[in-house]
Amino acid sequence: MMPLFFYDKVSLMKLFYALSLGASLLLFLSPIIIGLIGVVVPAAGYFPALGAQAVSLSAFSDFFAQKSAFHALWLSLFVGMTASLLSVIACFSLMACGAQAGFGRVVLKWHRRIMGPLIALPHSTIAIALLFLLAPSGWLVRLVSPELTGWVRPPAFGFVPDQTGWLLIVGLMMKEIPFLLFIALAQSQRLALAPLQNLGNSFGYAPVVTWFYLIWPQIYRQMRLPVLAVLAYSLSVVDMTLILGPGLPPPLAVLVLQGFYDADLSARLPASAGAVLQIMVIIFAIGLWLIGERLCAFAMRFALAHGARLALLPSVISAVFLGISGAFVFVILGLCAIGLWAFANRWPFSAKWPSDFGLRFWQTEAAFGTIAGDTIVIALGASFFSAIIAAFWLEVLDALKWHRKMVIHVMSGLLFIPLFVPQISLLFGLQVALSWSYLDGYLLTVIFVHCLYILPYVWLILAPAYQGYEARYHMMAQTMGYGMMRHFWQVRLPILGHSFASAIILGVAVSIALYLPTIFAGAGRVSTITTEAVTLAASGARGPSAQAAFMQMLLPLCAFAVIRLLLRLRYGRFSAMQAHHN
Amino acid sequence: MIQMPIRLIIGAFMLMLATGQSAAMADTDYEALLERAKGQTVYFNAWGGDDKINAYIRWAGDSIKDRYDITLEHVKLTDTAAAVSRILAEKTAGRDTDGSVDMLWVNGENFASMMRADLLQPTDWVTALPNWRYTDSQELPAIILDFAVPTKGREVPWGRAQLAFFYDSAYLDNPPKDAASLKNYIANNPGRFTYPQPPDFIGVSFLKQLLIELTDQDSALYAPVDDADFDAVTAPLWAYLDAIQPHLWRGGSAYPQNYPAMRQLVADGEADIYMAFNPADASSAIARGELPDTVRSYVHDKGTLANVHFLAIPFNSGNAAAAQIVANFMLSPEAQLRKADPVIWGDPSVLSIGKLSSADSAAFAALPKGIATLSPADLAKTLPEPHPSWVPKLEAAWAERYASGQ
């Protein structure tokens, strides 16, 4: 009897675990499903509140009746694909530099230092930095005028905002390269690189070429989902486009947003059709990307089989590296310009520095304190909650002995869905559902919606950390009679502390930058520093937008410092055990 | 289409209500309203792109909290249509109570489309407000006619606006005061003029200003657009824009997003002229150090567009009582006086000076004009707003010509 009863209890537990896993996953995916319904239905011509009740494809034909629709489609594809491809190449080049001994490794380390904080910056901040630096009346022109240029007024020509889309591509790259580098470094630390590197070197390949042939494919395989998320984001970016252009005509996502914001309410129908098209564009681009991946892999194998030495590769990489470093110098200068404007009372052209520093903007915007507080509460709340949920899922998978890579892959795929569906396509449906359920406008709702966008990243860091966790620690804990919770708190968490910290840091950065989901879930009642910054940046006045962008820079950095400090104080003594996992 | 007859019936019913002209609210009714409003929070959705306006709303919120125990939360919008969109989502979801928007800063096209979709409080609550007695719709008909659409007491007038132009006298001696001389100016000063990109409110208003000046069929503009030959009426406008396009800022390949962005361009010297729906805009910007004190204002010789902006309460607000108290406060001589002060906002009052107490009218008379603001006599010539149905047509035609990249 006894063993049978015991067996039953275990299988009951397992059933409970499996059910709670499924239920919580469904809870997280439900907003996506509701959001999709909410955009497909009006796109099909059904919108009772506007008196549209006949199902038809007229919303699509109305959308394409706009003269700029095709151009917008093309622009989205061009900007999204180019920015993602160049970001991956840049990430690859920076990583490859690290494969070179000496100088290259130092350079990579230096880039890591600078890029760490850059991950935390929202897209809009980077766009504002580029604008403040590169506009005809920007800091760059001020620094050299009138001495070098003879200009006492800004020139009448300029390239910000830019209609070709290249400036937007550069802006996107400045945001995505640090992110991809962060992920790539996290993945590469888990691979045993030295033997592979030695193997290639012993065949007489240059270190960079060895790295390219043997190591890069393994790293890339691990970071595929984030790369596709970058692609999906770049195809549907809104906030950066509004600041850097192109605006005449805009890419698809902005065209759709304009439709949703049109004073003529019937414009909502073609806008919904555009939002559905946006999803199709992303699916198409991902397909194209996967085909490209295959072709590259094929070319690489072909080159390897023929022993191509790729003698040019090191110099190509160095050139790319120099270009990127230059671009980042620009971003950092732009961030400095934001700092100056945030404290400038007056800064007429062509003065190099503000003629009068002061705190005027900070005194008028007294509400910043509450907004900063709410931002931190939402960011930390959503990040910790996401980490707890991810840990719960991983513990459950562990208890169920579902260790197979398949399970992890399927979970990753499901969790990344929110990142593949453009925010603009989800929002109307989500708004309807939230207002129907009276859930909008609460801090908790905003936190929950933020979790949708944070969880995939948290999962991306924690799942491999769990996979790499030394099973013997677990067994030892079990022999000492530790239950799941006790093992987690006293053994797992201290050892994986750094992974949890990275996950939460990334979560905080993602949360602080979220714009549209905050607006829609918060019903405009919940303001964060980013919603404030976008409103103020849209005002076009430099002082207020600099002030908001400055807060956007400062908040994540403070959050980081606090998390790092906590980690050191609480778990510093486990550093030797953590070494295996970093 | 099925709903059309129903809408017509509702419209006819509303018209009957409106012509019935409710008398001012009895004191006891107002007391009851105050009682109900106590402790409520009003989410005031208003464009938040100008920090001087935001500061004024913050002041109003503090005063209202002290006096009526009502909390005023300013929901800062980048575009009023975002709030209209949210109210529409709520109507779609069947959320008829406790909506997320309690009060909205609105006029023109947004008001007209909210009326069409029945998104506003369905009664005349405006003329019943105690402070309505300070207004005079005979003297200023625009307070009951929003872009030629009768307001029917669905929105309370908040401020007056008149299109004014601003230039830096350090670079420019004689600003161009009509469409023709503006065209010459632009051709002779390439890259120094632009206007906000339609559908921005000021951008579309600039198009309407030009259209009124250029077309010889003015009367058609004050009737629904479907009654007119749009192409024929607007042909002179497009010919004009085609001519100036290559000489605009950035060769017309980009436009600023809104008027504060243009103000920044003038502050930096990138552009020579900007425009705003507030004759005192430059004076207050100079006072705040955002513009050099050499900036001055002017209006076109034929007059410039003038309109009134309003406060409305959505159909599903759960705090309509408090929102009415807030609206009444915003209409008070005290709040209107502060709003008209060019150092604070400089938005002209909607009240009738003749109906104010002698102390209040003296206070209005004593308001500083501001270094860059024209006298009331210079601002006397105004042009009424065309029928709102012209706006979407103008926006679409502009986008087709200048925003499609072909």
Q: Which short descriptors sum up this protein?
A:
heterodimer; A: 582 residues; MetI-like fold; 2 domains; two-stranded antiparallel sheet; 2 strands; globular; B: 406 residues; alpha/beta; D-Maltodextrin-Binding Protein, domain 2; 6-stranded mixed sheet; disordered N terminus
Tell me what the structure shows.
The complex is a heterodimer of chains A (582) and B (406). Chain A is mainly α. Chain A has two domains: 75-248 and 313-355, MetI-like (MetI-like fold); 363-582, MetI-like fold. In chain A, 76% of the residues lie in helices and 1% in strands. Chain A has a two-stranded antiparallel sheet. In chain A, helix 3 crosses helix 14 (313-342) and helix 17 packs antiparallel against helix 19. The longest helix of chain A has 42 residues, at 2-43. Chain A is globular. The two termini of chain A are 47 Å apart. The model of chain A is unreliable at 1-5 (pLDDT under 50). In chain B, a hairpin with a 2-residue loop joins strand 4 (145-146) and strand 5 (149-150). Chain B has 406 residues and is of the alpha/beta class. Chain B has two domains: 4-158 and 308-369, D-Maltodextrin-Binding Protein, domain 2, CATH 3.40.190; 164-306 and 383-402, D-Maltodextrin-Binding Protein, domain 2, CATH 3.40.190. In chain B, helix 2 packs across helix 11 and helix 7 packs across helix 8. Chain B starts with a helix and ends with a helix. Residues 1-23 of chain B have low confidence and may be disordered. Chain B is built from 14 helices and eleven strands. In chain B, strands 1, 2, 3, 6, 10 and 11 form a six-stranded mixed β-sheet that branches. Chain B has a three-stranded antiparallel β-sheet with strand order 8-7-9, covered by helices on one side. The chains are: A mainly alpha (582), B alpha/beta (406). At the A-B interface, helix 15, helix 18, helix 24 and helix 25 of A face helix 3, strand 2, helix 4, helix 5 and helix 9 of B.
